[in-house]
Amino acid sequence: MATGHFLTLLDIAPDHLEQLIHRAIELKAMLRRNENYQPFRNKVLAMIFEKSSTRTRVSFEAAMIQCGGGAMFLSPRDTQLGRGEPVADTARVLSRMADIIMIRTFEHEKIETFARHSQVPVINALTDSFHPCQLLADIQTYVEHRGSIRGKTVAWIGDGNNMCHSYINAARQFGFQLRIACPPGFEPESSLVANNADRVTITPSAGEAVAGAHLVVTDVWASMGQEQEQMARMQAFSHFQVSPQLMDQADASALFMHCLPAHRGEEISDDMLEDPRSVVWDEAENRLHAQKALMEYLLGTWKP
Ligand code: CP
Ligand code: NVA
Question: Per the structure, how many domains does the chain have?
Fold first, then answer.
């Protein structure tokens, strides 16, 4: 059987994704009860980070420690990857030693190449194009607070970036409508939008996207790797800030999410994270539980 990877949300069938979210909720309850559950005993997770991280690194490492395994942090600065050893060679070698591999990098093609040459499951921990692990945590958070997201309306405000792309995939896999509000020139990948035309719409008006929405989500205006565009983007996105006033136009039950790190005064107002509709801290914590469920699924220690 071919090794199962998790490069985008499309790699796991919708019914399995739904069960994985419920498994994450169960694993969270088990941890709260202090249950000793160690399905990853003797398992090794190799974590390659070519970009910075707080939540992703800590959640994967904590998940392995709590479940009886080990995780190693690898940066290009200290490995031969940074000195030009081909990705395919690195994949062949690491996958003979590690049981599962997590990568955060730039070009999505790089993780695809890596996965093609890996004997063990590869997890996308963010590329320039997608951030699927974050979506597992986001959906878990919505389900915990409001129940199923199926049939609901989600408003994405801001850049058509990696998170936005993963929201498009999530709309397809979890069955919700997605309204994207972004300035002209910062739309998500057109082929991805075209392939999901029945559930994704794009508007240049944040107010229009948010009207009656059940979940409002945003992200930074300049992603990692776009630091030199920061000033130009500040201008382009100035009408795309999420604030409690914008949230007032959403449904009365609406929640607010942000994958973090956040920039107060840019994509969110100073008071947005403290607003009662914000669930960003639960969302951040759920990275831990959702990724445990994901690794259980990929390692076969739990089956839906
Ligand atoms: N949301 C997220 O992936 O955070 P980090 O960049 O801190 O890992
Ligand atoms: N879009 C952001 C997400 C960070 C978690 C970035 O790629 O930098």
Answer: 2
